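It is worth pausing here to work through a concrete case rather than discussing structure prediction in the abstract. The textbook approach is simple: state the sequence, then state the predicted structure, then interpret. We follow exactly that order.
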Amino acid sequence: MKAILISPRINLIEVVSQYLSPNGRDYSSNLVIFPGKRPAYFLRKFIAKKIKASFIPPRIFSMDEFIDYLYEEELGQRKRKLEPIDAVAILYEIHKNSVHSLGENSFFEPDTFFPLGLKIWSDLEELYIENVSPDQLRATDHITHENIPAPTAQKLQSLSYFYQSFYQRIIEDSYSTRSLRYQEVALKIDQVNLDHFCKIILAGFFAFTRSEKKIFNFLKTKEQVVCIFQEGWGLNLEEIGIHPEKELRPGKPTLYFYQSPDTHGQVLGVGNILKEKIAQGEKLDENTVIVLPAAETLFPLYHHTLNFLNSEQYNISLGYPLLRTPLFSLFNNLMNLITSREEDCLYVPYYLEFVLHPYIKNIYFDNQTEITRVLFHTVEEVLRERRTKRFMNLSEIEQDEQIITLVREKIRKLAPEVSPEEIITHLKSIHEHTIKKILASKNVGDFATQLKEVVEYIYRKSTARLHPFFYPYSESFLTELDLISRSLMREIKFEEVGTYFKLVKKVLASTYIPFTGTPIRGIQVLGMLETRNLKFDKVFFLDLNEGIIPEIKKEETLLPFKVRKILGLPTYFDRERLMGYYFDILIQGAQEAHLFYIENSEKERSRFIERLIWERQKEEKRMDDQTYIKKIQYQVTLQEKRPLPINKTEEIVRFLKDFSFSASSLDTYLNCPLKFYYKYVLGLTEKEGVSEELEQEEIGLLVHQVLFDYFRGKIGQILTPKSLNLCELEKIIDYRFEEQYGKEVVGEIYLLKRQVKKHLEDFIKQYQIPKLKDTPVKIINLEHQLETTKDIFRLTARMDRIENRGNRIAIIDYKTSANRKYLSINFNKLDLNKRESWNEAIATLQLPFYNIVYSLSTGVSPEEIECFFLLLGRNLIDQDIELPLFEDKDRNGLAEKLSSLHHIIFTLLKEIIDPNQPFIPASNRQDQCRWCIYNNTCSNS
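Step two, the predicted structure:
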């Protein structure tokens, strides 16, 4: 055997090519083994460039591929290699049938066992490839228990029990695993005949498992074997008894360090450097690499850096988590929808999330997607109006006349030939091929098959396949579903469809999309492991932060550190050493390396960067490291941008003069004229959804409806304690809740119902009945709409309750809030002559506005009309829930104060229609703008 140690400055691929012995253009008698797969592409490309002709390539394997080759081709073994889900299925069966199951019932179902099963399997495979015997592992059981959480420690099965049972089972059933193949090849390596290869080259290895060492020791005896190692941090060839020849090349990379506040700063920094290099005429080809150790950085890079390149100028090869894809989000939406069912009814917010996903709402209808989008946005619009109805079945939605009528109206110009029947058929078809298909699943295998058909339907019938990267997403998704449908778990049945989702979700969550990145051309975008054994002139390395580089995942194993040390298994120190080695040879082999890291309150730079900076400091004898670091900063202005006033056109003035003013519109103008403009002039409103939580407005509407139902039979009557029947109130509450939420009220709806009953009963007992004992009360009207005109202004008001109290008129407005501050007028602060004091002193003009409208409509003197709020949201319901327009202390000079408030109202109305008075921003913007829905629109005006 010949062993060589080369400098990182030397291209490993070129050195490997020098040791190949072709027969003309036939390299097939040469065997090359790398740790990973990617160098094979570069070696084949290098040979093609070198000979500039077609050729028969050498046999090139990654180490895993080499073991599979020896196992299957040389040793003639054809045992099926288990997928992770198959291995977990066997472990689950062992666990379920054992006398002392792990964690008692905590992991009794396959979906709860799966994540634990993956950890167990990973540990067993590591033990097996390192040739640890069950007896050796059994001797450490008492230490293993220390790493298990308390709830499961009492009934813990030892890992050694799984170890012995698992491999015994798969050998009996003629299965194989990666580690079993390594072990069997290591044990039978002397039976392997590799003499038909004229050269066997092992290139770029750093460390070997015990099984690999046996295989390596056998290969060392062969004359045709060449081992090529790369000199780097942490490499120790004495561990495997190698004393290589050295081939050194002097030189160091030029290093640039960049500190960024976040991911986007990094990718924008890379983009700016690449643009500069292109502008200067530098060639950016496969000798340039962007390294992404954190997969989540891929799409920020894709959208903000690679976007100025065409697709042939870059090449992506890394593993991207399937759970971060839009296809997984669709799966998740479907899972939420199915698992939240109540009998045959679906939870409306989750239904809308599913059908409004881009892959669903863009399903084709006669080769166009507009009709489907109109359909589902109309469904959203209709169900939003009925937002208190949270559960519906599919038939209700499919047969909803309002939906079909609205859709038909909206698509009349777009597709006049489409009939309502065709719309219904299209909607039913989408339900049939997605939601209903999943509901019919019989077992795990059938569920996976049905889900595959859903993905295939979306691929065929929607624009999803036109989206970037949908093909690799769907390919990985379908591959995993196919494995599940054929796995040893395929026959498992669950009572609830949701459990299938939970199991499959856990399988998919551990899946990565393999962006293979071939053919090799342009800038290489690679994961950390994909850079192994490759040399690049220009390196851009992102996310050089602790926890990412090196990646430390101590929790991914059930074997404690102490046990790993005793058994001679790799620890996180060894993983760090391996990561450090490959990082070192990548950086040292470059001409220039641009190293980016994020530094903020949550992240700190990697120890690998610390080491590089420290080495430079020692060389240059500097104490300050900041001279080496370029900081990527955003230009942020902290000065608040004041919105510009909006002038009134003649058209706006005409609109305002014909506008029907309400108390709420006047309050809006008082608080912020610009908000009035956006809300009432432009008609911009916030899009409402079917909320998962009960909103205050929804509760208020419900309480108003109950009180209207309760008192409407008493209009024109003098109220008496006997006429206020609590049983009648309870029946009305039951009816209204059933109408809005269905017969079975649970969870927050149940609690709300109890709260409403308690509060309204207290309202009758603690407020209304005591009030009748003091003052005769006769209800005049409920929910009464009044419209009137004064000067040129149209005024409208809807009053919750109007009644006679003795000789006076009382106008009542129900409020489900409890805060008096936001409903009162502070007459001490109010100065009629200071316009700026109005906003500060007046919380709302609702009550004085009601006073004006009622007085103008009926001829009743304003002084004879009392107006007040009833604060039904207070915890304690009593006589203090009344909040009158004028407290007792404010009743002095009542007529004058009423006159002042009327003056303010009409001054504001004149101001609104004044063409010379623009709509200006709120004077107290800090309070008004914080939660305003027009904030972004306003700030950008």
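Step three, interpretation. Residues 2-75+188-247 form a domain with the Rossmann fold fold (CATH 3.40.50.300). The chain has five domains: 2-75+188-247, 80-176, 254-293+527-631, 324-515, 650-692+777-939.
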